[in-house]
Amino acid sequence: MRKKVIAGNWKMNMLPNEAIEYIQTFEPMVKNSKAEVILCVPYTDLFYCIMNAQNTNIKIGAQNMHFAENGAYTGEVSGKMLKAIGVEYVIIGHSERRQYYNETDESVNKKIKSAFENDLKPIVCVGETLEQRESGETEKIITTQTKLALDGLSKEQVKNTIIAYEPIWAIGTGKTATSEDANNSIKAIRNEIKKIYGEDVSENVIIQYGGSVKSSNAKELFTTSDIDGGLVGGASLKPEEFSKIVNYDE
Ligand code: PEP
Fold this sequence. Notes:
- The chain is α/β, with parallel strands linked by helices.
- The protein has one domain: TIM Barrel.
- About 45% of the residues lie in helices and about 15% in strands.
- The chain has twelve helices and eight strands.
- The chain has helices spanning about 15-30, 45-50, 80-85, 95-100, 105-115, 130-135, 140-150, 155-160, 180-195, 200-205, 215-220, 240-245; strands spanning about 5-10, 35-40, 60, 90, 120-125, 160-165, 205-210, 230.
- The protein has an eight-stranded parallel β-barrel with strand order 1-2-3-4-5-6-7-8, surrounded by six helices.
- The longest helix is centred in the C-terminal third of the chain and has 19 residues, at about 180-195.
- It starts with a strand and ends with a helix.
- The mean pLDDT is about 95.
- Phosphoenolpyruvate (PEP) binds near residues 171, 210, 211, 212 and 231.
């Protein structure tokens, strides 16, 4: 059976002192969780979070990385740099990066490959816009994004990729996909992976849902057949609220 993986995405929020205080409050609340618990934090919080989450069940991730190892890319951070300070996960291709920073399916694919070269676990975001949804293109968009993101990876690497299905119209809007809709979209992604990489990979790959997940809807979403947890933005900024999402099954 697949494990639930629940990741918070703090986006561009939290100063180091706030991050440390958060982890101290959050840790006792989630220490008995059966789910994998991840906090994806700003670069400036990474080291503080890693130090403060040592010897706990909380894993730390970044929210982006460059695909090159080093070089003349002013302002960028590489996978090698993240690994060197103990980062374990990295979000790749979040819709905000696709929308505001020209992230493409090609750059997403390069970043995923670089993440694996640096022994980081990628959390890869795919999702349709409202316009695409309304014109009946959801399945085509999300399966194509998935196929292009994973292009050239080995079966083992795909098994170790976390995919986050995040309908763009549901991110930060308070609108959530119904659990049935989200589960069907995730089934379509799993089916695409099955066609390319086989059933063993598709049955093991973790596929999360993201988009206005909160404590009041987490259980309904996470207890469907194919949703393996969530990527949580706004609701992960408060330790009490996020701990209720992590402990959705209590
Ligand atoms: C996200 O940032 O990935 C996200 C899903 O945000 P929110 O939970 O705030 O919709």
